[in-house]
Write a structure and sequence with these properties.
With 374 residues, the chain is α/β, with parallel strands linked by helices. It is built from 10 helices and 20 strands. The chain has a 7-stranded mixed β-sheet. Helix 2 links the parallel strand 3 and strand 4. Helix 4 packs parallel to helix 5 and helix 7 runs parallel beside helix 8.
Length: 374
């Protein structure tokens, strides 16, 4: 396993979720570049440093002994990685405080290190929240691999923080360094809202929610085929996003019991608000988690899932496969997993390796809805 070696520390880091023989490492050249840039500034140990979107703890753990570090982001898996990698490197699991993106941090901060996220709306929301939270002379330093660094990221830094200087490229990574200067207070454009006609719902979507501006076409294909007549079944919406699958299912199944789970804190925040708006005080469990890892075995009758096909910029079906495995573990014998997926992903054959029966419930030219019986 390669070590992250910087002027601050030598660290052994694992990605989350863990996979046997994972070819990907838990840091990249952008992490190294950010840390080397900060080391050259010789910050006092009393400096307060906010680290945003640190996927596996590379930045926060490196800096922990050299500054007052606070981590924040929208990923439960990133928080889990931070805690596990702290312990892996001989530190207390809670020695770097973490603030979920659904909550607000308290400055002032002398430096802010940002890994530019895939969703620029999340970056925009984070930069807006930094208003009034930066110390005099503070810098906000954003890093990314060049292929994942859109021009709009620099525009957002300029708009909300101050003048931006782009670094030279190094190992295909680049930094954007913004020096804080007074800016007019900006109101956040998030959360956004959109309406469904059937059932009639208005859905709240915080900045990092998938398909924030409108219902995604996979979910649109899934909704008419959600199971009915579930009685008092225990149902989970796995990877719930804004909660639309679970909420629409709950409206059609008034006696069923629901759990909505996502690894995005902003998704969970959105799902909680949407459930309350649609279903009032009806009991529900909504939580941020590593899929169904925290669910008791054989504790569910039905799982609904529109699985993701990427983790940040890494594309593949590894997260979907893991969700299918988790669903099988959590379902009772005879329980069912319902999914929607692109035809070309071949989920039918993957599910057939885990479940005793797989049937096609519906299809469009692009999507299939499948039912897998345990």
């Amino acid at each position: 396993m390669p070590l992250l070696i910087t002027p601050f520390a030598e660290l052994e880091l694992l990605r989350q979720p863990e996979y046997a023989n994972d070819p990907l490492q838990a840091f990249d050249a952008a992490d190294e570049y950010l840390l080397e840039h900060l080391a050259a500034q010789a910050l006092p140990a009393t400096s307060r440093v906010l680290v945003l979107n640190d996927s596996f703890g590379a930045l926060a753990i490196s800096l922990r002994a050299h500054a007052q570090v606070l981590g924040s982001g929208d990923s439960y898996l990133a928080r889990l990685a931070l805690e596990k990698n702290l312990v892996r490197n001989g530190q207390a699991f809670d020695s770097v405080p973490f603030i979920a993106a659904s909550q607000h941090w308290q400055g002032p901060f002398d430096r802010v290190l940002v890994r530019v996220p895939k969703t620029l709306a999340l970056l925009e929301e984070q930069l807006i929240r930094l208003q009034g939270q930066l110390a005099p002379g503070a810098q906000v330093i954003a890093g990314a691999m060049i292929k994942h660094l859109p021009r709009a990221a620099g525009d957002l830094l300029e708009k909300y923080i101050g003048p931006v200087q782009a670094s030279l490229a190094r190992k295909k990574a680049r930094l954007l360094i913004a020096t804080a200067e007074p800016r007019a207070a900006a109101a956040s454009p998030y959360p956004t809202r959109y309406k469904l006609e059937q059932p009639p719902l208005e859905l709240v979507n915080h900045a990092n929610v998938f398909c924030r501006e409108g219902l995604d076409i996979g979910t649109r294909a899934f909704l008419p085929h959600l199971p009915r007549d579930l009685g008092d079944a225990r149902v989970a919406d796995l990877g719930c996003g804004n909660g639309v699958l679970g909420i629409v299912s709950a409206l059609a199944n008034p006696q069923a019991h629901y759990t909505l789970v996502d690894e995005s804190y902003m998704a969970v925040q959105s799902a909680e608000q949407n459930w309350q708006a649609a279903l009032g005080e009806r009991a529900v469990t909504v939580r941020a988690d590593d899929g169904l890892a925290g669910q008791a075995p054989q504790s569910l009758d039905v799982v609904l899932c529109n699985p993701p096909f990427h983790q940040q910029q890494v594309v593949g079906d590894f997260l979907a496969w893991r969700m299918f495995q988790q669903a099988r573990e959590a379902l009772v014998a005879g329980g069912a997993l319902y999914i929607v997926g692109n035809r070309h992903l071949g989920y039918h054959s993957k599910l057939a390796r885990l479940f005793r029966g797989v049937e096609q419930v519906a299809a469009t030219p692009k999507f299939v809805v499948l039912k897998a019986r345990k």
